[in-house]
Design brief:
- This protein has helices at 6-16, 18-28, 31-42, 51-63, 76-85, 98-125, 135-143.
- With 147 residues, it is mainly alpha-helical.
Length: 147
């Protein structure tokens, strides 16, 4: 019997946690999370800073799916986006250069949301891994350093 690959293990992990992932995605996509926080960015509201908690929640959930958790390393591009978008504390001085301070939070959230969406989508639709990679699955593999 052939050993299971890390990609196959990732897909199995996603499938095992699919109800939890779908529930989180539904919550993230709801009015008071996705819609409201993006609005808060354009409204210059300090409440946009709350999007960082959502981003952290998504990433922490995605980490639990890692097929090789003792060696987990986020994709370096995403790690930079994540760090820049989850380390902000509101200061009124930020209003003077709003985009500089808040746009990284939106960017980190949207990238994390993408990875969660791809986990849910491909967890529902893929039965096995293969050499033919749908773009979203390939993107998700980059998150885990498997591509």
């Amino acid at each position: 019997m052939a050993a299971i690959t890390l990609q196959e293990q990732l897909l199995q992990n996603i499938k095992a946690k699919l109800p939890e992932l779908k529930k989180l995605l539904k919550k993230i996509n709801s009015h008071w999370y996705y819609e409201d926080h993006i609005y808060r960015f354009y409204h210059y509201s300090y409440k946009v800073y709350g999007i960082q908690d959502l981003t952290i929640k998504i990433v922490e959930t995605l980490k639990t799916l890692d097929p090789n958790p003792e060696k987990f390393e986020m994709n370096s591009f995403f790690e930079k986006i994540y760090k820049e978008g989850t380390s902000k504390k509101f200061k009124s001085i930020h209003n003077k250069n709003w985009s500089k301070h808040t746009r990284p939070m939106i960017e980190a959230f949207l990238h994390a949301k993408y990875f969660l969406e791809m986990a849910v989508k491909h967890g529902k639709t893929m039965e096995t891994t293969s050499n033919e990679l749908p773009s979203g699955w390939a993107g998700l593999l980059y998150f885990y350093g498997l591509r």
